[in-house]
Amino acid sequence: MEQEYREQLSRSQGHVERRGAGDAHAGDCQQRTAAGPPTTSKLVRKTFLVNHTQSNVPTHSTGGSTWSVKIHDFGKQWAEASWGKVDPHPGKKGYKGTSKHKEQNEKRAQARAKGEIRRKCLSIQADHLVTLTYRDNMEDRDRVLTDLERLRRMLSRNGYPMPYVAVLECQKRGAIHPHLAVRGFQDIRLLRRCWYKIVGKAQGQVNVRGPRPGTSPVKLARYLSKYISKDLDSQPREFEEHRYFCSLGIAVPTERYQIVLQRHARRAEGKMFCFMYYDMVRRIGEYCALKHWTGGAGTFGWISGSEDPNCRIIIHTSSLLPPHPPGQETNSS
């Protein structure tokens, strides 16, 4: 008996040793005795070359120029697109606020802000204008923005979410009040009750302006975006402060593409213009009104269009449509 017990014990110990040398079962633990093989490097947004023995000289691709395209398609009611040639050797970016072309950069930033306001108004289909005012001469920009955020939270707690796009208007006497582009009919009583709780009773006012009869949603959105952004130049704004404000969750339909032309492609600027022109007509239809603009000798441009039963675009595929003189806006109908 004693000898059989010893044989069973030796067999069980040998079985345990073999398990330790192999893979452990589920729930068992193993002590790592050696480092495993190095993991394969991943490609992320920024991948750096760590092995300095390799060549750092970029290889030349067989393709030609690269063009970046961005399209905002709101259906047949409105669509716009911009394109530009990608610089293969971009220059170094300087620090903000140290550029020698501050006035030119400021105009570009204002144009971008107006475009974003228009697109966001189209995204929420804004057709009403809400104006919030103060009785006193309110000149504190931070106080106005805080009150606007409090109003949004109070409306949400009352089960009344209100997507909006807002800008601040500064009057000649220095008073600041916000304009909000919203969608649909608004409960004026609820808005005034919430606004009075914030600024005090009889210390402010809420006005709602509706659409005119017979006006399309696109024209209303364009008008509202133009109206609420007309005073962007006179806004009390410090460096890096926003020009407009909007509620969360506004998704602007955006498509981004990169087009690589052949290395020996000729008349690339004219072909890119024709390509964007035909694509815009394809999206909206042949009954449409288009506006387009190019600059930089055709290296960048912009085109927009909307459905118009009074205008018909006839495309001749046998010949390319040459671009108009750069730096000018042209209508096509």
How would you explain this protein's 3D organization?
This protein is an alpha+beta fold and 333 residues long. It folds into two domains: 63-86 and 253-332, no CATH class; 117-246, Alpha-Beta Plaits, CATH 3.30.70.1910. It has six helices and eleven strands. The chain has helices at residues 2-21, 102-124, 141-157, 188-199, 217-228, 268-284, and strands at residues 63-73, 79-85, 128-134, 165-170, 176-182, 204-209, 245-246, 255-262, 288-295, 300-307, 329-332. The protein has a six-stranded antiparallel beta sheet with strand order 8-1-2-10-9-11, with helices on one face. Strands 6-3-5-4-7 form a five-stranded antiparallel beta sheet, sandwiched between helices. Helix 2 (102-124) packs antiparallel against helix 5. Residues 11-61 and 317-323 have low confidence and may be disordered.
General form:
globular
| CATH topology category name of the largest domain | Alpha-Beta Plaits
**Sheet of most strands:** 6 strands, antiparallel
Helix count, per DSSP? 6
Structural class by secondary-structure content: alpha+beta
Task: Tally the structural domains.
Answer: 2
Bin the helical content: 25-40%
- The CATH C-level name of the largest domain is Alpha Beta
Order of helices and strands: HEEHEHEEHEHEEHEEE
Distance between the termini: 107 Å
Widest sheet: strand ordering: 8-1-2-10-9-11
Query: Can you name the CATH architecture of the largest domain?
Result: 2-Layer Sandwich
* Rg from alpha-carbon coordinates: 31 Å
